Amino acid sequence: MSDITTNSQPRSVRRSRPVSSYLLRRPKLRLLSLLALPMTWIIGVYIFSLFLLLITAFWNVDPFTSLVSPGFNLENFSLVLTNPSYIATSVRTLLIALTVTLVCIMFAVPLGIFMAKIARPWLRNALAVAITLPLWAGYLVKIIAMRLVFTEEGFFNWAMSPIGVRGPGFSVPIVILTLTYLWFPYMALPVYTAIRQIPPNLFDASSDMGAKGFTTVWRVVIPLIVPAMIAGSVFTFSLSLGDYLAARFTGGATQMIGSIIAANINLNPPVAAAYSMVPITFVVIYLAVARRTGSLERM
Asked: Which of the listed CATH numbers 3.30.70.330, 1.10.3720.10, 2.120.10.30, 3.30.300.20 matches domain 81-298?
């Protein structure tokens, strides 16, 4: 009887082994279980949606009924690539996105140096809260806030009226300022984190060799934080390319790629789908250039 008990005990132990022990002996199955959910989202939702968008770009629209019918033609892409209005809007949007990225870098680098190396802890924490504060509010709320600031009877004109200065009105500069306000945290936080990791002795060594403040920033700080700036620029550049509400509420007559896509989404979905390939192409080219610099490998 005792032999039967001792022999049956290992079997019950084997049956109660956790799933982790089972997966530990099967690395391929473990890898598959880890990647199943994210790959389902990336391939099954994101990439598949883009694939459907690309297919729609080749479809036809009946000029009389405005009904969309499946087909294959390159007229939509030809219109996007040859229409002067579409070309001008694409170039304008690209320049706005690049300008927003450069402005974010120009503000993020000195702010990051001050926060990481100069500011007291309480001031550093206060600035960190101030940087992330825009992320607490809704996207549309922040755009409406900027519209109220720069409207004709808004805060900016009221504050500057004693010295005879008036705002530029709703135009491209206000769009750039609005997008900078929206996406600046995505640049400031990685830049600040990268600067904080720079050893203080590098600043001391630069000072001992006679380098001034600007030279130290240009020769020491900038090369070390390039991966952080690339990481932040991916967000500021791509998010600015796809935005259209900022142009709609603060740009006046300014049109961006998103504005034309939104205008055609009901009137001519295939043209909207074809034009949606333009910002995707810009982002792919931008990532390819960033990859050739080697910054993405060091992120």
From this structure: 1.10.3720.10
Q: Would you mind telling me the total number of residues written for the chain in this entry?
A: 299
Find out whether 241 and 278 touch, Cβ atoms under 8 Å.
no
d(CA 122, CA 116): 12
Q: Which of 276, 260, 268 is nearest to 61 (CA)?
A: 268
Name the token pair of 226: 């390039």
Reported as a single tens digit per residue, the pLDDT across 160-173 is 888 878 878 888 99
Give residue-wise pLDDT tens across range 48-81.
888 888 888 888 877 776 677 787 888 888 888 8
- Between CA 121 and CA 11 the distance in angstroms is 60
Please give the angle made by the CA atoms of 104, 105 and 110, to the nearest 5 degrees. 110
DSSP 174-238: HHHHHHHHHHHHHHHHHHHHHHHTS-HHHHHHHHHTT--HHHHIIIIIHHHHHHHHHHHHHHHHH
